Amino acid sequence: MRIVIAGGHGQIARRLTRHLTGRGDQVVSIVRQRAHLPDVEQDGATGMLRDLETASVAEVADVLAGADAAVFAAGAGPGSGIARKDSVDRASAVLLADAAERARVGRLVQISSMGTDHVTDGAVPPGVGEVFVAYLQAKAAAEDDLRRRDGLDWTILRPGGLTDEAGSGLVALAPRVSRGSVPRDDVATVVVALLDDHRTAGMTLELTSGDTAVQQAVAALTTPTQGIS
Q1: Quick one: DSSP state of residue 199?
Q2: CATH number of 2-221
């Protein structure tokens, strides 16, 4: 497959790139800074310079031309303020979806965050700082935009708290799971499995560490529940 990753220099994105290129897929990594190109190219990707906060739909669609799938893995990152939560975590996700539709890329996996359902209808979770609330609001708005699109086979993935521990390959993956953390390695592995299984299109999934192997967890999402006779 040919897969375009938006936010290609991010920690999940680079792990994802190595997974994909390691099995022979072609990866195009969209990065904002020229200094990031050597890193993503070392991972096996083709780096493309685009600033998702200023690029046009046409400029991003040009990168997506001929791709089989796209992944939104961009984020404003720690230390960024409220304005960039909106311009990156929401607006850049919308831009990628617009560009994917224009380039006729049917498959899109959007990496979001657990907790977005806590800010629906203007709700503010108690004890949460305003910047993190803005982050959750931006992610929720990006999810809502994607769900309204009929031209994309989208899947939304909401990881829990991210860690740099080595991936175990064991996860909890479902529309709702208990809050928890998950290694970035395992998030990347799950994204690969979701890209491979188009039957997960239209699903919004939460992810934490668990006790089910990734492939088994993804397969269970589309396996009919057997009734008890």
Answers
A1: G
A2: 3.40.50.720
